[in-house]
Amino acid sequence: MSPLDQHPLPTSQLREWDNAHVWHPFSAMSAYVDECAPIIVGGDGFDLIDSDGLRYLDGISSLWCNVHGHCVPEIDDAVHEQLGKISHSTLLGLSSEVSIRLAKALVDITPQRLTKVFYSDSGATSVEVALKLAYQYHQQKANPEAGRTKFLCVGNAYHGDTLGSVSVGSMDVFHRTYRHLLFPTVTVPSPVATRVADGHTRESWIQHCFDQVTWLFEEHHASTAAFVIEPLVQGAAGILVHPTGYLKHVRELCDRFGVLLIADEVAVGFGRTGTMFACEQEDVQPDLMCIAKGISGGYLPLAATLASDEIYNAFLGAPSAGRTFFHGHTYTGNPLGSAAAIASLRLFESRNVLANAAANAEVLATRLQSLNDHLYVGEVRQKGCMVGIELVQDRDTMLPFSSEIRLGHQVTLMARKAGVIIRPLGDTVVLMPAPAMPQQQISQLCDVTFQAIDDAIQKALRNA
Ligand SMILES: *Cc1c(COP(=O)(O)O)cnc(C)c1O
Questions:
Q1: 292 CB within 6 A, ligand 1
Q2: Does residue 425 share a domain with residue 311?
Q3: Ligand 1 neighbour 230 (Cβ under 6 A)
Q4: What is the pLDDT of residue 14?
Q5: How many structural domains compose the chain?
């Protein structure tokens, strides 16, 4: 059999080649090959369909990016139409109709201060762009401060997997291997009270986190270029929800000390937290904003870094002056991705997706209450359609289960058997339904997940 043959291939053949040749991201491959993961061949609404014809509810929006479901006629048509015109041309020295339209549409819906759109193709690249822009800005602005070279970051942050974005991240499991390759940063504790330092109550710990940011600004501001933050929710850290007022606190400190605010809205943007962008909820205007995942409705790889006039202006001057931003990715502003993004934004309006997301958030909140007294649920965290259910061995001490059990992963396998795809972060079970998912499927997602949690725990306890 040749992989280039046009006829369908049996699952057994696909699985053999998958195990032989595909290196999956963030995957322990020795375990992966034994688990017979579904091989997806199609999508239909909020379902995924595998090579055996089985259907699964997509409970994590295909890793947090899908917005309106799969095979949405309006987005499909927009991409088809663009395919009939051109699939890719470059933004280096040329422009493109759909990229222009999308830039204007993005500027219209993002915080007012943001007027310039620099395209790239993934969340990580959108963060790289923001970091380099912030760094270069201080060297080239009207009163240059070349000493502003550092970045302030939040503990357990995740901003992508390229080395710059890993430098401003601090998830030990993902990042420790590369620490000698990274540039140094200053980290403030994540303002969450899931586990607090000795001698603190939940309240005093949160206050400590607010104070700590203030102190670090006072200490480091003269050498700091920007503060990088996932606004409201730290996704990859386990859906950690920040207390109200934290983002605003950081914005005020940035203003006071001349530090730029980089909002990484890659995960939280496009309706995920209930508003179009998370910054809106605290009425905060970042200087740079990174968007990706949901930007194309979850259809195609596309990202953007939005910047203020003030930043943009620092890069102007005679071409020979060398103030140019020398950065760009080959598929920057890809027309197919841009066409999908425009169609997605149209659907946000015509179907009032934000209202649906709000209704989903309420259904989720109601259903999640049933876990409040669960013996093995340490904490339930939710913001809009983002949910993290942290499973622990002992809820009083927040003692985790042994990592050998891979309990979060076991829950995923149980849910898969019942026709639902989810993916955990350690022992935090994550639900990330698409903002446009109907409420009935939200209920199904909860039913299956809660049962899978009980089944996986029962099994773990039996084997203990
Ligand atoms: C997923 C994510 C990224 C990285 O996006 P990629 O498209 O995977 O590179 C960056 N920041 C946040 C907050 C994310 O959740």
A1: yes
A2: no
A3: yes
A4: 96
A5: 2
Specify the CATH number for the domain of residue 414: 3.90.1150.10
DSSP strand pairing (420-421 vs 55-58): parallel
CA of 464 to the centre of ligand 1 (A): 36
CA distances from 275 to 238, 246, 268, 354, 427 (A): 20, 17, 9, 7, 28
Distance in Å, CA 84 to ligand 1 centroid:
31
Expressed in angstroms and rounded, the spacing between residue 301 Cα and the centre of ligand 1 is 12
**Is the same domain home to 336 and 425?**
no
Confidence of residue 171 (pLDDT cuts 50, 70, 90): confident
5 belongs to a structural domain:
no
Domain annotation covers residue 415: yes
Residue 54: helix, strand or coil by DSSP? coil
110 C-beta closer than 6 A to ligand 1: no
User: Mean pLDDT for the chain?
Assistant: 96
Instruction: Return the structure tokens found at 92.
Output: 């280096």
- Please report the atom of ligand 1 found closest to the CA of residue 267: 15
The three-point CA angle 85-87-93 to 5° equals 100
* CA–CA dist 158, 235 (Å, integer): 8
Asked whether residue 125 is assigned to any structural domain, the reply reads yes
Is there a single domain that holds both residue 304 and residue 376?
A: no
Q: Coil, helix or strand for 306?
A: strand
| Phi, psi dihedral angles at 307 (to 5 degrees) | -135, 160
Ligand 1 pocket, 164 CB below 6 A? no
DSSP state of 107: H
- pLDDT value of position 260: 98
Is residue 22 assigned to a domain?
no
Q: How far is the CA of 134 from the centre of ligand 1 (A)?
A: 19
pLDDT of the residue at 78: 98
User: 350: part of which helix (H) or strand (E)?
Assistant: helix 335-350
Average the pLDDT over 385-414 and give the result. Answer: 96
pLDDT band per the 50, 70, 90 thresholds, residue 106:
very high
Q: Report the atom number in ligand 1 closest to the C-alpha of 234.
A: 13
Kindly indicate the confidence band of residue 176, based on its pLDDT and cuts at 50, 70 and 90: confident
What mean pLDDT comes out for the span 247-265?
98
322, 350, 378 — which closes off a domain?
Answer: 350
